Give the backbone structure.
Amino acid sequence: MPSTAPASRSPWRSLRHRSMRWWSAANFVSNAGTWMQLTVQNLLVLQITGSAAATGLSMSVQAAPALFVSLLGGAAVDRWPRKLTVAVSQALLGAVAFTTALLVALDRIDMTSLMVLAAVTGVIATVDGPACALLGNDLVPVTDVPSAIGVGALVHSAGRLAGTALAGVTVGFLGTGAAYAANGVSFLFVASVVPFLRPAPGAGGEPAAGEPAVASADAPGAGMSVREGLSFFLRRPRLVALAGITGISSVFGRNYGLTLAVLVTGPLAGGAGAFGTVSTVLAVGGILGAVLGARLRRPSVRTVGLLAAAGALLQVVAGLSPSLAVLLVMVLPMAIVESVSDTAGTAVLQTDPPPHMRGRVLGVWSSIGTVWSLGGPPALGLLMEWAGARGALVAGGLLIAASIGGGLLARHRGGPVPLTLAARRGDVTGREALGTAA
């Protein structure tokens, strides 16, 4: 009998598809432009107001729509053709960037107009974010989705480094407006690439070879409500479990910029340079973790939970570190495990729902994530006030590990909970994408 070649586990396997290579290149350009603008925006707000608080306000204004509008944005992504949605949203973001560049060039920019433009950007991003994430997954076979997500994480990190580096050069030689204009060009570049993208066989929501498409249970356009998306999320045990794991980890285990900063500069008697070294190790671990996460083929909620629990236990050991050297040894595996867990969780989130529900699921997730990002730091700060940096790391790690362990035990005893959902045209039956059973 002819031998069957083993499926590739290369973290770069998604890049064997031509459209994914173009999409990754476009995303690198766009991320570089976005981080260039974000860097310059903070400098511009400081220049206009001289207030650090105003800088934080501008960032909050841009992020706030994710809390209130993401559900509508997700519904729009499910209702509209994905490639058209991405092209239009990128063009609109480019128009906002060019408008800001023009106002800066004419010296007509003020705090009010900057806040309005930031809010508009945030609203558009509630559609653009999930649309871009799902479009990338639609280009590759379902088993290559973890690779696509891992490559996307690496592209994001590389774009961030390039954008922040280019911001200073651009402002120094060409002025603040040029950075906004460059970001506008990056958005238009993405919009121009989108029409030429072609999904690989078996990609996205298309049926794989030998798997028939299912007739739609509803008329086209029906059942695309926000309520249906929220109801689906809440009735999907694995998504609720994923939200719980990610939420408790985000509050008590992911805010290392706060906990490790206090630990390094306090009990370990280090300075800003020492914390800079810790931050660098965290960044390196994140990149290594993204590469390892891209090797996954069938991530599940159980995988995410076990990785998160392992990271929590490493956090406990890090909290007990007697010296900076020991902390640095612990920080690297912490960052790697966290990054692999993130990649696995994102793969589950973006492939577990049927294709016609994925935009709304991401919209729900974005709203939940915004709550975590707003409420997490104050809650962790209170814990640190009560228990100190070491106590917060140890208590937080134990709480995460115990919660995940208890959840996995309860899930094992309770057995699977089936969920019936009406099929739509293009949904794949007879298998579950990436084997995401919790």
Summary: DSSP finds 15 helices and no strands in the chain. Residues 57 and 132 are 26 Å apart (CA to CA).
